[in-house]
Write a structure and sequence with these properties.
The chain is α/β, with parallel strands linked by helices. It is built from 14 helices and 22 strands. Strand 6 and strand 7 form a beta hairpin.
Length: 559
C-alpha cells in the first residue's frame, strides 16, 4: 500500500531520496482553544450591539522567551482591521476584548510571536539585579531601539533617538541601564512590537444583533379574539385598541399566530374536530385559500393596509409586532396547484397531510424539503420573509423549524441578514437538545427552551447552569415561556394561582427574553384536554371573548 497516511498534515516524513520540510519552520508560537467559537469556527457566535466581546485563547511557545500577542477584529463593512492588546489570564491563556458597535458580522483573529524585545528587557533586568556588567546586551538593545525608532512618531520618536544616543555613549552606562529597566521601555515594547515569524489563528465570526434580540418581553394573542363583542370576529383595528393595555403590562413584542387566509378543505372545528360546523373559523395554521397564501391577509382580520397600520401603531407604544412563519399549507393554498412538486405525493396520487402520530392534521400539507424542485421552493420561502420585511416586520417566530431542513435555515437567515440585519428569528422547536442547539448554531436569534417543564429547584439550577456556563452561552439565546397556545403544561392544569405567579415571575427574571400566551394566562385558564398537555376548547380552533379590562395579581406581576 503506497498511500501516505501523513497526507494533509503539516509535516511529511522523509522519503527515500528526498526530505520535505514544512513551511513556516521558524514559527514557534502556538494558538489554540479559541473562545468563543462553535464547531471549530464553522458557525458564527452571537453578541449584542454595544456589548463587549470577550476573546480568549491558549497561546504558548517552547522555552522561556516572552510572547507577544494581539487581537485583531473588524466589522463586515470595514476594510481595515483594528488591533487590540491581549493580557495574560492563567495557565498560558490570554484574553482581549472589543466593543461590537454595529449590527452585523464581526471577524476576529489572533496574532502571536516570540517577543525578543521583551525577552531582552527581562534578561537585562535580571542581570542588573545580579550585579553583572552589560556590554553586548546594550548593543542588542541598541539594535531594538533602532528598529522601533522607525515605527515611532512624535515625542516617542524623539525620546527613542535620545535613548539611542545614550546607549552609544560608554560614559552614560548607568543612565543606559536605568533606561533598560524603566517603565518607558516597557511602553515602547508594548506600543511598537517587533514582530517576527508571527503565528496567526484562523478567523472566527461573531454576529452582533440589535438589543431587542437579548432583551424582549413577548405577549401572544389571536387577533380574531381581540374583539370585545361576542359573536364578532376580531380585526387588526381591535388589536390596535389593546395596545395601551399591552404596553401597561410591560410587553414590547406582540406576537400574532398566522394572519393569512384559512383553507376550507378539511377545515377543523372546535377541539380539533374533523367536523367543522358552519361559522367556525378554522385553524390559522391551515394556511391558504382562494384569497392567497403566505403573502396574503385573512380578509376577516382586515386588509394589508390595515395590517401595516397595526405595525406602525405598535411602534407608538414601544412595541414590535412579531409574525408567525408556519411553512405548511392547507389543501386550498395556491402552492398546491402551482407547485405540486413541493409536497410528498403518495402512491395513490394524493398529497400526504401532516401527522404527528397519533395526531392527524388533515387540514395541513407539510412541505417536502427533499423536493426535486427545492431551489424554487427555497427562493419562494425567502420571498415570503422578504415580503413581510417590506411590510415593516422585524421579528419572526418560526413554527416547528426542527421539521425543516437545517441547510435551508442557514441559507435563508444569512440571506435575510444581508439585507435586513435587524431581523430577529425565534425558533419554536420543543424537540431534542442537539436539534435545538443546531438551529441556534445555523442562525436563529432566539430559542424556545425546556423552561416550560423545569419546575423543581434542582431542575432549574441544572438547566440555567447549562444555558449560561457551557458553550451554549455563545450561541443559544433562551426565551422562557411558562405556556404557549399549543402547550398547557401539567403544572398549570390545577389552576393554582401561586404557581401561575411563580412560573411567570421566574421566566421574567431568569431570562432576559420571555413570553406568555395571554390573556388565558392572566385569567388562570387551565382546562386541559387530558391526558395531554393541551388546552380544552383551545383558542386555535375557536374565537374566545375575553374581558380585556380585567386586572388581577397576574397582570400586576406582568407590569
Amino acid at each position: 500500500n503506497n498511500s501516505n497516511i501523513f497526507e494533509g498534515r503539516n509535516y511529511t516524513p522523509m522519503t527515500k531520496n528526498k526530505i520535505i520540510l514544512p513551511s513556516g519552520g521558524k514559527i514557534r508560537a502556538v494558538i489554540e482553544n479559541i473562545q468563543p467559537e462553535i464547531n471549530g469556527g464553522k458557525y458564527a457566535t452571537k453578541t449584542i450591539q454595544g456589548q463587549k466581546v470577550q476573546i480568549s485563547a491558549d497561546i504558548l511557545i517552547d522555552g522561556h522567551d516572552y510572547l507577544g500577542q494581539r487581537l485583531w477584529y473588524k466589522h463586515e463593512s470595514e476594510k481595515s482591521w483594528t488591533e487590540k492588546p491581549m493580557f495574560a489570564q492563567v495557565n498560558d491563556r490570554f484574553g482581549g476584548e472589543f466593543t461590537a458597535e454595529k449590527i452585523g458580522f464581526y471577524a476576529f483573529k489572533i496574532e502571536a510571536w516570540v517577543d525578543h524585545f521583551a525577552t531582552w528587557q527581562h534578561e537585562v533586568d535580571e542581570k542588573i539585579k545580579a550585579g553583572l556588567k552589560l556590554e553586548v546586551e546594550l548593543l542588542v538593545g541598541l539594535d531594538f531601539l533602532n528598529i522601533i525608532a522607525k515605527l515611532a512618531k512624535g515625542q516617542d520618536k524623539e525620546d527613542i533617538k535620545k535613548a539611542i544616543g545614550i546607549f552609544k555613549n560608554p560614559e552614560k552606562y548607568e543612565e543606559a541601564t536605568w533606561i533598560c529597566r524603566s517603565e518607558q521601555m516597557h511602553l515602547w515594547i508594548d506600543n511598537y512590537p517587533i514582530k517576527e515569524n508571527t503565528c496567526w489563528s484562523e478567523e472566527r465570526l461573531i454576529f452582533a444583533d440589535r438589543v431587542k434580540a437579548e432583551f424582549s418581553a413577548w405577549y401572544s394573542i389571536f387577533p380574531r379574539s381581540a374583539t370585545k363583542e361576542v359573536g364578532k370576529h376580531g380585526t387588526f383595528k381591535d388589536v390596535e385598541k389593546l395596545l395601551p393595555r399591552i404596553q401597561e403590562l410591560g410587553f414590547d413584542v406582540l406576537y400574532l399566530p398566522p394572519v393569512h387566509p384559512i383553507g376550507q378543505t378539511f377545515r377543523k372545528g372546535k377541539n380539533n374536530s374533523t367536523e367543522c360546523l358552519p361559522g367556525e373559523p378554522g385553524v390559522p395554521y391551515g394556511i391558504g385559500s382562494s384569497e392567497g397564501g403566505h403573502t396574503a391577509i385573512h380578509s376577516e382580520l382586515g386588509n394589508l393596509d390595515e395590517f401595516k397600520q397595526l405595525v406602525e401603531e405598535c411602534k407608538k407604544y414601544g412595541i414590535e409586532l412579531a409574525m408567525d412563519l408556519a411553512i405548511q399549507c392547507s389543501p386550498d393554498h395556491p402552492w398546491v396547484t402551482e407547485h405540486p412538486a413541493w409536497f410528498k405525493i403518495l402512491p395513490d396520487g394524493t398529497i400526504k397531510y401532516a401527522e404527528n402520530p397519533p395526531k392527524k392534521y388533515q387540514d395541513i400539507y407539510p412541505i417536502n424539503f427533499e423536493s426535486d424542485d427545492w431551489q424554487n421552493l427555497w427562493i419562494e420561502l425567502k420571498n415570503v420573509i422578504f415580503t413581510w420585511a417590506e411590510w415593516g416586520v422585524k421579528i419572526i417566530r418560526v413554527d416547528n423549524p426542527h421539521t425543516k431542513s437545517f441547510g435551508f435555515w442557514e441559507w435563508v437567515i444569512a440571506e435575510t441578514r444581508a439585507i435586513y440585519p435587524e431581523m430577529i428569528f425565534l425558533s419554536e422547536a420543543f424537540t431534542k437538545p442537539k436539534v435545538m442547539q443546531q438551529l441556534a448554531k445555523v442562525g436563529f436569534t432566539q430559542s424556545y427552551t425546556y423552561y416550560t417543564w423545569r419546575n423543581s429547584k434542582a431542575e432549574l439550577i441544572e438547566y440555567i447552569t447549562e444555558l449560561t456556563k457551557t458553550d451554549m452561552k455563545d450561541y443559544f439565546r433562551p426565551n422562557f415561556w411558562p405556556n404557549t397556545h399549543d402547550i398547557n403544561p401539567y403544572i398549570l392544569q390545577s389552576g393554582h394561582e401561586p404557581m401561575f405567579l411563580i412560573k411567570y415571575f421566574m421566566a421574567a427574571t431568569l431570562s432576559s427574553n420571555y413570553g406568555v400566551f395571554g390573556p388565558s394566562y392572566e385569567y388562570l385558564y387551565h382546562d386541559a384536554n387530558l391526558p395531554k398537555e393541551e388546552y380544552k376548547n383551545s383558542e386555535k380552533y375557536e374565537i374566545k371573548y375575553w374581558d380585556w379590562d380585567k386586572r388581577n395579581k397576574i397582570t400586576h406581576i406582568y407590569s
